[in-house]
UniProtKB/TrEMBL annotation:
It comes from the Bacteria. This is Bacteriophage protein gp37. It comes from Lacrimispora celerecrescens. The lineage of its organism: Bacteria, Bacillati, Bacillota, Clostridia, Lachnospirales.
């Protein structure tokens, strides 16, 4: 399930170039004006019986079609933290390319982090990993994951995997997609094995290179093909 309290976004780094929500070929999916959606307070809305519309024991992917830490949302984020705090029975997954703004609008009672918040730092290349991940690890967060998506080159995550619960990897999707090399994926998997971190190869992307051959992958097959390669490392719990 996804919860998008606001919509709109703009480029933060190289990984955004072909963003399928706000990139040059994505006009029909989104727009760049950042505004609240009509789902802003969705997790705490109740029905006539006074029960929450969204039942508990769920994972809510939060701001997967925008960025949770956009400066334009600083005021709204305060309210959203309060909503998240109220729904301790829901796990909120927050993915961001703007982890350097994590401390802005953090609630006063955050402490070492809320138990029901899992923050994912996106890195697409070594440069973004070397800038974002030391910051990510320095912040008080109870549960962390790294999303290498879209994976644009070989990345060495080794110095950053301590304190990270999980790594997800995915190639770039869309007409202008850049190549994703399976060797880069396998290399990250190897790093995760050594660090005892779970790993999920989410999707191949549209241009997938394997055994020296670059193949165009149909958008509907990118997830299933990644799964069929059978390289995920699970600890028995649900992968994202
Ligand atoms: S941060 Fe995410 S949603 Fe925003 S432009 Fe970049 S890829 Fe798109």
């Amino acid at each position: 399930m996804n919860w998008e309290p606001w919509t709109g976004c703009y480029k933060a780094s190289d990984g955004c170039t072909n963003c399928y929500f706000y990139g040059p070929h994505a006009k029909r999916y989104g727009q760049n004006t950042i505004q609240k959606t009509d789902k802003f307070d969705w997790p705490i809305r109740k029905n006539t019986k006074g029960e929450y519309n969204i039942k508990g024991n769920k994972i809510l992917a939060t701001c997967f079609a925008t960025d949770f830490f956009l400066p334009e949302a600083d005021e709204w984020r305060k309210e959203v933290w309060a909503i998240i705090k109220e729904r301790t029975d829901i796990e909120f997954l927050i993915l961001t390319k703007r982890i350097d703004r994590f401390l802005v609008s953090l609630p006063a009672d955050w402490g070492t982090g809320y138990d029901n918040v899992n923050i994912g730092c996106t890195v697409e290349n070594q440069k973004s990993a070397d800038y974002r991940l030391p910051l990510f690890l320095s912040y008080p967060i109870k549960r962390r994951f790294i999303a290498c998506a879209p994976l644009l080159e070989e990345i060495d995550l080794t110095p950053y995997l301590h304190g990270v619960d999980h790594v997800t990897v995915g190639g770039e999707t869309g007409r202008e997609a850049r190549e994703c090399d399976y060797n880069w994926v396998l290399h990250i998997r190897e790093q995760c094995m050594k660090a005892n971190t779970t790993f999920w190869f989410k999707n191949t992307g549209s241009l997938f290179k394997r055994n020296g051959i670059v193949e165009k992958i149909n958008p509907f097959k990118q997830n299933s093909m990644a799964k069929e390669l059978g390289i995920d490392i699970s600890d028995g719990k649900r992968l994202f």
